[in-house]
Write a structure and sequence with these properties.
Blueprint lengths: L6 E6 L6 H5 L4 H10 L33 H12 L1 E6 L12 H18 L8 E6 L5 H11 L5 E7 L13 H10 L3 E4 L20 H7 L1 H13 L2 H4 L5 E4 L6 H15 L10 H8 E4 L9 H10 L7 E2 L12 H6 L6 H13 L9 H4 L6
Parallel strand pairs: 1-2, 2-3, 3-4, 4-5, 5-6, 6-7, 7-8
Length: 374
């Protein structure tokens, strides 16, 4: 991107080269559980339409592993080409913790965080930062994991795959997670798409989609429900420091959702007395959206008009490529569909406010002083 400084990519996926590279980070009992019981680390059940083919870029396949496992390709295809200052590494959507055994899922999350810190966030490229993955199935365990590793100076956020218990993520059962995130001043990111690999969550209103066209077109339904539940269950009133980043959910639906919430909350907030303000006020203060996938109409002007119709959205969008997925968004493509005076905010400034950082060479000051590793 020309004339844009400090670019932050909020959604980059990384992966181990092979199962052996990852297994060493599991405790002995769970490692034996996998090796001797032939239990797959990856979710055993993948719903159609994803059991065949790949959802990754073909040019992102290295010779010795899956897409996302090669630092060299990541550097050449993304970091250097786009001139990224910070890339937030967010595993493989977090789908690895979509396991029906909640204790195994928690162990997988801990091991992935240790693998990520050890293999990606220590000692070589200072543009790489990481998400802290948790399994929500046992919220107190997730909160303990946040407190265990969340002060590491290269951890940028808590990453939730949607949704471990099949309940919208604002539900009070999940609140220990937000208490820990609030305590450590870490944003919470929700990445969508995990239910296609199994689990209890319902990703769309009518049931599981049976084609990829359905899947990608209705993916934002779960995101809208989770956002509404954060507001109606009072998460932001209870934990005023919580900042929420919605990943890979699109942006075009935001005006519709918040116009609807605002128009109804006066009459219907009796059941949610902790909704003290208009729902859109919570959006402006606590919620950010990633640009990927940006979904323009036939005319560039239509997209810009829609975005500008919801005042303040220029301060809430954060650039994300979704590398190395096949539908990752190129930086020039995103910029072309934004009003010109939004570009610097979307590619840099909004994410700096979300993560409370000021530049690639500076660590998050609020957490660096008390940093502790694995």
């Amino acid at each position: 991107m020309k004339n844009v400084g400090g670019i932050i990519d909020c959604d980059v996926h990384h992966k181990w080269k092979n199962e052996g590279e990852f297994l060493q980070y599991l405790p002995r009992e769970w490692r034996e559980y996998v090796e001797h019981g032939r239990i797959p680390i990856e979710p055993a059940t993948v719903h159609y339409p994803f059991p065949f083919g790949t959802n990754k870029r073909l040019d992102a396949f290295p010779d010795d592993g899956p897409p996302g496992s090669s630092y060299e390709l990541l550097r050449s295809q993304l970091l250097d080409r786009v001139n990224i200052d910070r890339a937030v590494l967010s595993f493989d959507v977090g789908q690895e913790v979509a396991n029906p055994n909640p204790y195994f899922a928690a162990a997988l999350a801990r091991a992935q965080n240790d693998w990520s810190v050890d293999r990606w966030l220590t000692g070589f490229d200072d543009r790489l930062y990481g998400a802290l993955l948790v399994s929500e199935q046992i919220p107190t365990e997730a909160a303990a994991e946040i407190r265990r590793i969340g002060r590491h100076p290269r951890i940028m956020e808590v990453l939730l795959p949607d949704s471990g218990l099949g309940l919208p993520l604002g539900h009070p059962i999940y609140h220990p997670i937000y208490e820990a995130a609030d305590e450590l001043d870490l944003p919470v990111a929700i990445h969508f798409g995990v239910p296609i690999w199994g689990g209890l969550a319902q990703m769309s209103g009518g049931g599981l989609p049976m084609t990829r066209l359905e899947y990608y077109s209705v993916l934002n339904q779960a995101g809208q429900h989770h956002i509404a539940s954060f507001i109606t269950h009072g998460v932001f009133e209870k934990y005023p420091n919580v900042r929420l980043l919605i990943l890979e959910c699109g942006v075009n639906w935001a005006p519709w959702l918040f116009w609807g919430l605002d128009s109804r909350y006066h009459e219907l907030r009796r059941e949610s007395p902790w909704v003290k303000r208009a729902p859109s006020d919570y959006f402006y203060d606590h919620i950010w959206l990633s640009t990927q996938p940006i979904e323009p109409g036939d005319r560039v002007e239509d997209m810009r008009e829609l975005l500008e119709s919801f005042g303040g959205l220029e301060d809430k969008l954060c650039f994300a490529t979704d590398y190395p997925h096949w539908d990752s968004d190129e930086d020039d493509f995103v910029a072309r569909h934004l009003p010109a005076d939004w570009v610097q905010k979307v590619f840099s400034e909004n994410a700096q406010k979300l993560f409370k950082v000021t530049g690639a060479s500076k660590r998050p000051e609020s957490r660096a002083a008390g940093a502790r590793g694995r």
